[in-house]
User: What shape does this take?
Amino acid sequence: MTPLKIKHCKHANYTRESHVKLTTSQFHPAAQVIMTAGLDQSISLFQVDEKTNPKIQSIHLERFPVYKARFSADGEQVIATSINNRMFYMYNMIAGKIIPVYNVRGLEERKVKEFEVSPDGLFLLLLGTSGYMHLLSMKTKEFVGSMKINGKAIAATFSPDGSTIYTHSDDGAVYIWDVKSRKCLTRFIDEGCLRGMSIAVSRNGQYVACGSSSGIVNVYSQDTCLQQTKPKPVKVIRNLVTAVTSLAFNPTTEILAIASKKTDHAVKMIHIPSFTAFSNFPVVGQKAIYLAQEMDFSPRSGFFSIATNRGKALLYRLKHYSDF
Assistant: This one.
């Protein structure tokens, strides 16, 4: 297999470094911009130019260390949750307004941390306690309804069209939900998984990747997940030895990035469809990836970023792709 053509650029937040953990590094869905956020209570936007990545703006959220931040599907808003807070923020970038959202009627949760934005822009999915997951309308921020699994919902993701939700639980089961009816379509056991940690669906809808506490990533065909209660993985990836805390498919479904925030330099790029790791990433001897918190690919795969616990959003140029 040919090596990955990759160039290590100046980190994305070079013009506004953080000295504490970054929890978020996400590319804008349309503009050549990247967002970072973290425990320094701020959200920052940078222009991605490979040279200095100049800062566009930074907003400070008082007493609000950011647990997670996400662009809305249209890229006009940012949603941010904190570590120990029931309230969350919506930042309207067009209007320049920061809107606190709290006391959502019907939402019985003491704190809101983990969430996902539906790709169609309609919903916000909040992962609650005791196996509950809640849907909120992105437009009105009103409570739509809840779903419940056995055990605890650890990670969730939407299908590319936003019609279904995949949930990985702490007992190793994966639940697939219909968004419209909020009914469970099916449930299957992630093979050999004692505790689910992460989940991702490829942009073309072909694969479902499930990361576990043992470092194993099982990749399934989406069709078999919907049809079988004990599907066999297409591939079992054993490149990590600590819990797989984040997974990201690139937009063309040619690469699956897998990472663990439990140990340094625990990031691998897996080639699809051979499902073998690119041997030249991370670069041997280059000690840069300190506890990878989160990863993202730019909209057309030209860039890849990793948020680290040392406050840097590492940035790489993937030369196989000509566009941002």
Remarks:
- The mean pLDDT is 96.
- Helices lie at 222-227.
